[in-house]
Design goal:
Rossmann fold, 200 residues, 32% helix, 7 helices, alpha/beta
Length: 200
């Protein structure tokens, strides 16, 4: 039976509806941008037939609310099997960290992969709204057999300093640091593929 990999994409968060409307108004639309392939859409092909990649479209990605994402994520859980790998990119990363630190996941987790995940807003110019992490990430560490952290020093969105904050809370996590991955918006992510395949 295929090994399952769940990938939670990123999103935007705002403290108020007015902030959201202001962001929408200022947003510069680029129709070509949406046609570029990203590693999330190529992951299934690169992992191969032994894997089933599940890519939920989380609610209201432009104005994400943790409570809504939690409900939608939990609708997928009955369809998951033991030994699942959970991958979160950007806001999806802090969502997984928050969820697993506050909730008991009913299936065994082979690994958690946090890609360019924000930790807090201390060095950032964005809001995390209700995606704020609890004080302790110990429950996540207890539920995941392995945790992987990925960050790039040239990330223009999530400060590189957030990686060290995750490392301090998750001292046994395996860390991959890059210098040229931006916010991991590339077409292929071979290191992630290798880490997931290496779990066999």
């Amino acid at each position: 039976m295929a090994k399952q990999v769940v990938v939670i994409h990123g999103g935007e968060t705002f403290d108020t509806y007015e902030d959201y409307l202001a962001w929408l108004t200022a947003y510069e639309l680029d129709l070509e941008k949406g046609t570029t392939k990203r590693w999330k859409s190529t992951l299934a092909e690169e992992l191969g037939e032994e894997y089933e990649v599940i890519l939920p479209t989380m609610p209201n990605g432009f104005n994400a609310k943790y409570a809504e994402w939690k409900i939608w994520f939990e609708k997928h859980i009955p369809h998951l099997r033991d030994g699942v790998a959970l991958v979160g990119h950007s806001l999806g990363g802090i969502f997984i960290a928050k969820y697993l630190s506050e909730e008991t996941f009913p299936k065994s987790i082979a690994s958690v992969h946090l890609v360019a995940a924000p930790f807090d807003t201390a060095d950032a110019n964005y809001s995390l709204a209700d995606f704020v992490l609890p004080e302790s990430l110990e429950k996540m560490a207890e539920q995941a057999a392995r945790i992987y952290l990925y960050h790039s020093t040239d990330d223009p969105i999530v400060p590189f300093t957030d990686l060290a904050k995750y490392q301090s809370k998750l001292p046994y996590a395996r860390t991959s640091i890059f210098a040229d991955r931006d916010h991991f918006r590339m077409e292929s992510f071979p290191e992630l593929v290798a880490d997931i395949q290496g779990l066999r």
